[in-house]
């Protein structure tokens, strides 16, 4: 149309433009930007005042397309065309659109990297490349150098830490200057958490650059700072990861880290410095083992399915296929024993603060329905609070008390009888209404198969399923806040087989499954891939219980019971009972309050007790 009629239009306006000032605003759509140059050239024959009307929206729409890395070249071309037509004054629109999208907090929950967006920068015209670099670097550094506690939630600044590493990788930041900045931040407690995160991402994305182009003295000083300052337990995973990839070892005995040469200059735009890397240091902790010490027998006549520990009364509670619930003292004496009338329990958990016990009831006879059963502790005895039978439910598979919640809240996994309905994660408050007629305060339907395990940390809880996924939940949110794992056949999975168990402690989540793997997740990191994935003995894993430190756990497989060190991958078989009695598989494992004594229950119908020892 423009080609056909622009001569006529130009002839008309040539007769009138001496009488008026003409300005033209073009309302472009993102898919029309490729035609913008030709259209604007024609319109400028009429007037020099031609501009796109909606550049902020256009920049946002284009930058959002960078999520698909296959569109990088086409988006880069369209952005450059738009900049050419809109002029230098459009830079503000470009920058604000870029920052809004690249630093969107939702990227973390969606497990998306900032890197695809930053790959646009080298493809910009030189003027805009320089402008973007000179604004982005101060913004990223200013955000990351805010004062924060050592145990900060890293999700709050993870995108900025990754952006720092990407800017280094693109050589927008000089590698030696970046290392100097990391060294400085690492030495200060209130910036150490950010520094560790920045360094971890820089090692992950820029390892070759560190080896080939960084000043050796800067690397040496950084390695020594890491050894001296990053000694907190919360950074143990990070430090080991960094040391392993950098090839850093313990410093020589006569070395004095404080006398290391100091690198010069903070992070700054790259000047193309080339150099090599010098190794440094790290120390490995001692390992732990389990020693069998006692057995509590005579309480059950069938397999034990579930154990919980009451750290207020210092007692162990067990239940199983026989429908019996036994409360044991820590020396194996039966304090209380009672039998469920219509059900047995496949899962159980306790809220010691609220003095409440919750069980998943499996019907003993066909006339009963699956149930949620509750007990209250009164006058040193567990008394039935109620039994909420669920005729619409095929199975109540697992339960977890949210002990950090101020109310008496617990979570269940439930399977519907209706074939088209998805599995349900439901949240209840035991103190609201009659327990016999419980109604969920929140209900989620995202799992595609039976929910097999639940665990929690303060403020959030986790679910594992036969659908191979692990999901993170916050009962204040309308859906799961994240799914852990990596893509497989178009969906994110944590394991290649059914997830059999979960446990969480400090900032660590451990999952295990029928794929014979134990996966260790650092919840401070926004990276949804595990920090470690271990094979124990080639058998499926039944249960894990994180030990006195977040870097080790007791692990029950189909073959044996082990103490596993996540850092080294070493698994130590439990030291057996002195009388050499057999130890079959354990369906549940629980630590006492200070995680020095472990209790296990399984096919032997007894509760076995283990103590922990250093090796």
Radius of gyration over alpha carbons? 30 Å
Portion in beta strands:
25-35%
* Strand count: 32
**Strands of the biggest beta sheet: in what spatial order?**
3-32-31-30
**Ends apart, CA distance between termini:** 83 Å
Main pleated sheet: 4 strands, antiparallel
Overview of the structural elements:
The protein is α+β, with helices and mostly antiparallel strands. It has 13 helices and 32 strands. A hairpin with a 6-residue loop joins strand 13 (409-416) and strand 14 (423-429). The longest helix has 25 residues, at 189-213. The termini are far apart. Residues 1-9, 11-19, 250-266 and 271-285 have low confidence and may be disordered.
Question: Can you give me a brief rundown of this structure?
Answer:
This protein is α+β, with helices and mostly antiparallel strands and 615 residues long. It has a four-stranded antiparallel sheet, with no helix packed on it. The protein has a four-stranded antiparallel sheet with strand order 4-5-6-7, with no helix packed on it.
């Amino acid at each position: 149309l423009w080609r056909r009629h622009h001569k006529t239009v130009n002839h008309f306006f040539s007769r009138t433009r001496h009488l008026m000032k003409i300005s033209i605003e073009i309302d472009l759509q993102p898919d029309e930007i490729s035609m913008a140059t030709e259209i604007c050239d024609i319109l400028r024959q009429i007037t020099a005042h031609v501009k796109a009307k909606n550049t902020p929206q256009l920049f946002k729409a284009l930058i959002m397309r960078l999520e698909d890395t296959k569109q990088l070249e086409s988006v880069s071309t369209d952005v450059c065309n738009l900049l050419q037509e809109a002029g230098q004054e459009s830079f503000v629109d470009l920058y604000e659109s870029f920052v809004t999208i690249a630093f969107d907090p939702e990227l973390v929950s969606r497990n998306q990297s900032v890197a695809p967006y930053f790959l646009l920068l080298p493809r910009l015209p030189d003027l805009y490349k320089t402008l973007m670099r000179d604004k982005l670097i101060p913004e990223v550094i200013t955000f990351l150098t805010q004062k924060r506690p050592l145990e900060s939630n890293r999700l709050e600044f993870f995108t900025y830490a990754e952006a720092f590493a990407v800017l280094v990788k693109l050589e927008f930041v000089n590698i030696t200057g970046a290392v100097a900045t990391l060294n400085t931040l690492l030495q200060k407690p209130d910036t150490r958490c950010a520094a560790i995160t920045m360094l971890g991402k820089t090692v992950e994305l820029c390892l070759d650059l560190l080896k080939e182009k960084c000043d050796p003295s800067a690397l040496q000083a950084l390695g020594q700072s890491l050894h001296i300052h990053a000694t907190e337990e919360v950074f143990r995973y990070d430090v080991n990861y960094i040391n392993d990839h950098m090839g850093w070892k313990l410093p020589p005995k006569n070395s004095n880290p404080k006398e290391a040469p100091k690198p010069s200059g903070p992070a700054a735009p790259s000047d193309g410095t080339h150099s090599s890397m010098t190794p440094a240091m790290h120390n490995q902790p001692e390992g732990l083992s389990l020693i069998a010490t006692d057995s509590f027998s005579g309480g059950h006549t069938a397999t034990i399915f579930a154990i919980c520990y009451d750290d207020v009364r210092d007692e162990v509670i067990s239940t199983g296929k026989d429908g019996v619930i036994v409360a044991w003292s820590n020396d194996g004496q039966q304090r209380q024993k009672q039998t469920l009338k219509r059900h047995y329990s496949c899962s159980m958990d306790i809220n010691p603060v609220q003095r409440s016990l919750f069980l998943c009831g499996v019907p003993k006879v066909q006339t009963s329905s699956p149930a949620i059963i509750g007990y209250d502790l009164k006058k040193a005895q567990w008394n039935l609070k109620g039994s909420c039978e669920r005729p619409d439910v095929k199975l109540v598979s697992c339960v977890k008390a949210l002990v950090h919640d101020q109310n008496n809240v617990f979570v269940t996994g439930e399977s519907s009888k209706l074939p088209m309905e998805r599995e349900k994660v439901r949240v209840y408050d035991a103190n609201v209404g009659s327990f016999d007629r419980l109604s969920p305060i929140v209900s989620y339907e995202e799992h595609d198969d039976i929910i097999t395990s639940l665990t929690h940390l303060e403020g959030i809880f986790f679910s594992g399923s036969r659908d191979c996924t692990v999901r993170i939940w916050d009962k204040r949110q309308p859906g799961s806040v994240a799914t852990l794992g990596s893509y497989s056949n178009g969906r994110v999975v944590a394991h290649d087989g059914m997830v059999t168990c979960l446990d969480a402690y400090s900032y660590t989540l451990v999952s295990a499954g029928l794929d014979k793997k134990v996966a260790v997740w650092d919840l401070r990191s926004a990276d949804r891939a595990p920090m470690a994935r271990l094979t124990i003995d080639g058998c499926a894993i039944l249960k894990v219980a994180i030990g006195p430190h977040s870097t080790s756990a007791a692990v029950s497989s189909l073959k044996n019971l082990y103490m596993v060190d996540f850092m080294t991958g070493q698994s130590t078989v439990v030291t057996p009972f002195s009388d050499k009695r057999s130890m079959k598989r354990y369906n549940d494992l629980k630590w006492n309050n200070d995680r020095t004594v472990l209790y296990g229950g399984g096919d032997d119908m007894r509760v076995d007790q283990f103590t922990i020892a250093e090796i």
